[in-house]
Amino acid sequence: MPQWSDYSTGERIKILRGREIKQTQLAEMTGLSVVTIQKAEQDKTLSLPTLLAIADSLGVDTSVILGQQAPRRSLCREDRAMLRTLSHAVHDTAAGALPDTEEEPTLAQLRTMTERCWSTYWQGRYSEAGALASPLLKEAAAHLHAQPAGEQAAAWGALADAYRVSAYVSNLLGVRDLAYAAIGHAQHAAQMAGDGIREALVTSGRSWVYLRDARLAEALKLAEKSAIDIEPKFSRATSDELTAYGSHVNFAAVVASRMGDKERAADFLSQSHATGARMGSEHRAHGTLFGPVTATTQAVGVNVSLGQSGKALALAESIRDVSGLTDAARNRYALDKSMAQADARMWDASLDTLEEALVRSPEWARHQALPGVIADKVGRASTARLRRVSKLIGGHTGTGFAQATAKTAL
C-alpha cells in the first residue's frame, strides 16, 4: 500500500492538480509556461521558483509537494487556499499585525459577521465559513485596537468569538495545529473579556480539539468542567443560558461515549434531556443550537457509540421532525441512524438513510468519514443500492489525490 512519500514529485503535483485543474490552467495560475508544468510533472526539472509558484497555486506547503508531509484527505484546492489564508489571519492578529482600515467596524457589525460565520458553518459549508472567518478576525482585532483602555471587554469578547469559529473550522477540516492555536488565542481573549459563558464555550471547544486528537481523558475532563462552570439554576435561567449548558452536557455525553463510559454518558444525557424539556423548543445562541430535538438526536449518536443500536433506533422512532435542526446536525443524525440500522443488519434501510444525507448535502458529506465506514459494514451483505451509495461516497472525496489514491493510508 503506497504512502504519499512513495510517489515522485511530478506524480504528487499531478495528483494535487486532479481532474479539476488542467495543465494549461495551472500554467495560468502560476504564471509559468505549459511546458514548464509538463516538465515538472514528468520529473524533468523543478527549480525553487517553480516549486514555490506551484505550491502557492495549489494551496499547499512545499513540503507536501516534496513528499515530506501528506495532504489532508477530502480537501480540494480551494479548501487548502482558504486554510492558508485563515492561518495567516489567526497568527497575524495574535502577533498584533492589524489590517489597514479607514474605519473600524462597530461591535454590532462584528456580531452580525460572527452570526453569519456560525450560520454558514452549521449549514456544513465549512470552506465558506473559514473564508468568512479570516476577515472577521482582522476586523475584530482592528476594533479591539481602537477601543480605549478600560473599555475593551466587549471587543475582547468579539475577538474570542472570531478565534473560536476559526478553531472549529480548522478542527473539522483536520488542521489540528491551527485549531490548537486558534482555540488558545480564543481562551486568552475570553479571559480578557471576563465573560464566564464565553470561557466555558472556549473550554468546550478545546475539548473537541482534544477529542479529534484522540486525547479522550483530557477531552472528558474539559467537557465536564465547561458544563459545570455554567450550570444554571433552571428556575431563573434564560434561553441563552440553557442553550449553552445543554450543548455542553450533550458534548460531554459524546466524549464519555467515545470512552465507553455508559454510566457517565447516561448521566449527561439525562441532564441534556432535562434541559431540552425545560426549553420546550430549539433555541439558537452563542454560535450553537439546542433544544429537545437536539438532545434526542444527540442521544441516538451517543448510544450508537456505546454499541446500543437497539436503544438508538428506539430513540430515532420517537423523533418526528428534525426540520428545526441545523443542516449539519440533521445530517449527522442521519449518519448515526444509518449506522444504528447497519449494526442491526437493516441493510436496505441503512443505505436509504445514508443516501438521503449524501444527496442532500454533498459539500458537508465530503468532510465526513462515517459514510465510508457504514458502506463497508453494509458491504458485507450484497445489495443493489450499495454500488450507487459507494459512487456517491467516492464523489465526495474532493481532490484528484483522494480519487487516485483511495488505496493509500493518509
UniProtKB/TrEMBL annotation:
Domain (HTH cro/C1-type): residue spans on this chain: 21-65
Pfam families attached to this UniProt entry: HTH_26
SMART domains in alphabetical order: HTH_XRE
Protein name: Helix-turn-helix domain-containing protein
